[in-house]
Specification:
By secondary structure, this protein is an alpha/beta fold. Helices cover about 40% and strands about 15% of the residues. The chain contains 14 helices and eleven strands. Strand 10 and strand 11 form a beta hairpin. The longest helix is centred in the last third of the chain and has 22 residues. It is globular, with a radius of gyration of 20 Å. The two termini are about 15 Å apart.
């Protein structure tokens, strides 16, 4: 097996034992980029010599952290000291901030090889789409806005990658590309140095190819509860709530099949799966998310609308101009409704090991303009709860369709343990 084919956890074990160097792993990934990047176009910025220099720096470091030697893609709206951050916007083309975002600085300090900047939807919000293609079908989207990050991990170009989620931009691309992803509890990872869209919603997340991969970055960020080692185990004994959610009518047949299949596989593995209907207040959680998104987005892009109006996509002019007429009263209602639902959901979630629910409406859509509907993600983003995306089945066109498991706020460590126990049952393609 070549290093690029390994999961991050597999490569990390060999790196720790000295059987691989950071340069070995990086050269393997560079070869994979040379083979596939012209098709997938995952990167907005990529310099092979800089990637090698970063790998050699990691090999020479006196401290080798939990991410030592692992190539890491960084979404191109997160600042990197040694690479430009364009936000996929002509306003910031070639911009070099000269410093790392907090998440990048932590990853670099833990030994990660900052490999390249992955393509994104403009400002990780709207406007221009990424050039990235779905690794399973170049005619289809990889999802947005973390387009390049999900695709790069799926292609084996990097072992890990950063995404962000304001609506569904981490978990949905994972489903479309057939990889694992984690959106942690809102606020537990410092978002300084990432373009702000909504301070209530924006969350740094990440991609890998196994639950153990996701845990490596969780350890780097010192998430609550991770000081206790994960206990290996099987799905047997887990208590899972199967939740269709208030937007079930948007689920395509393959999304419905994925959820049913995941539940059935867990039951066959010895878990208890119970269908649960969320209380009536959750029927309006999607409405509250949209109000918060547009209300906070109004100020997020006002600077660009005033300073560079001719270079800014109309989507952002609409937000800055409050074209949908979001009012102060609506914002107050949305904030209060979200707070009520957070407390209510935490109470429900604590009665189970995890909530099992759809990760996306179905397979990745054709074309690059439609990056998919975030309807099965946005409510969880507003609720601030941790989410982990798990591949499950292939849809009617042979593309991946995933599910996600969810826990209460600050239940990240427990959810990672559940993912380690549940994923081998849910995902037949997961390598033991």
């Amino acid at each position: 097996m070549e290093p690029w084919q390994m999961t991050a956890a597999e490569a990390a074990a060999l790196l720790k034992d000295g059987r691989l160097s950071a340069e070995d792993v990086t050269r393997s990934c560079l070869a994979r980029v040379a083979e596939r990047e012209h098709v997938t176009r995952a990167f907005a910025y990529f310099d092979p010599q800089l990637a090698l220099a970063n790998a050699r720096r990691a090999d020479k470091a006196s401290r080798r952290g939990v991410l030592y030697g692992l190539p890491l893609g960084v979404k191109d709206m997160i600042d990197t000291a040694d690479m430009p951050t364009s936000h996929n916007s002509p306003i910031y083309d070639g911009l070099r901030q000269g410093r790392d975002a907090a998440c990048v600085g932590i990853a670099r300090a833990e030994g990660a090889v900052i490999f390249g900047k992955t393509d994104t939807v403009e400002f990780a919000a709207a406007g221009r789409r990424a050039l990235t293609r779905n690794p399973h079908d170049p005619a289809r989207t990889p999802g947005g806005s973390s387009s390049g990050s999900a695709a790069a991990v799926a292609e084996g170009m990097v072992h890990l990658a950063f995404g962000t989620q304001t609506g569904g931009s981490t978990i949905r691309p994972a489903s479309f590309c057939g990889v694992y992803a984690m959106k942690p509890t809102h606020g537990v990872v410092n978002s300084e140095g990432a373009k702000r869209y909504s301070h209530t919603l924006d969350t740094i997340g990440w991609y890998g190819r196994s639950p153990a991969d996701l845990r490596l970055l969780a350890e780097a960020f010192r998430l609550y509860g991770l000081e206790q080692a994960a206990k290996p185990g099987e799905a047997r004994g887990l208590r899972i709530a199967l939740v269709e959610g208030p937007h079930w009518s948007f689920a395509a047949p393959e999304a419905r099949e994925a959820l049913a299949t995941a539940g059935r596989r867990l039951e066959q593995a010895g878990a208890t799966v119970e269908a649960v209907t969320l209380p009536r207040p959750f029927d309006e959680i999607g409405k509250a998310h949209r109000i918060v998104l547009l209300g906070e987005g109004r100020g997020a892009f006002l600077q660009e609308a005033l300073a560079a109006p001719g270079l800014l996509h109309q989507d952002f002019h609409d937000r800055a101009a409050n074209s949908e007429g979001i009012t102060a009263e609506q914002m107050l209602w949305a904030y209060d409704h979200a707070a009520d639902c957070r407390r209510l959901f935490d109470e429900i979630a604590r009665g189970y090991d995890a909530i099992l629910t759809p990760a996306a409406p179905g397979e990745a859509p054709l074309g690059l303009q439609d990056t998919g509907n975030a309807i099965f993600n946005s409510m969880w983003t507003l609720l601030h709860v941790p989410c982990i995306g798990i591949p499950c089945i292939s849809g009617p066109n042979g593309l991946p369709v995933g599910v996600q498991i969810i826990g209460p706020r600050f239940g990240d460590a427990a959810l990672l343990t559940v993912a380690g126990r549940a994923a081998p049952a849910i995902d037949p393609g997961l390598r033991a």
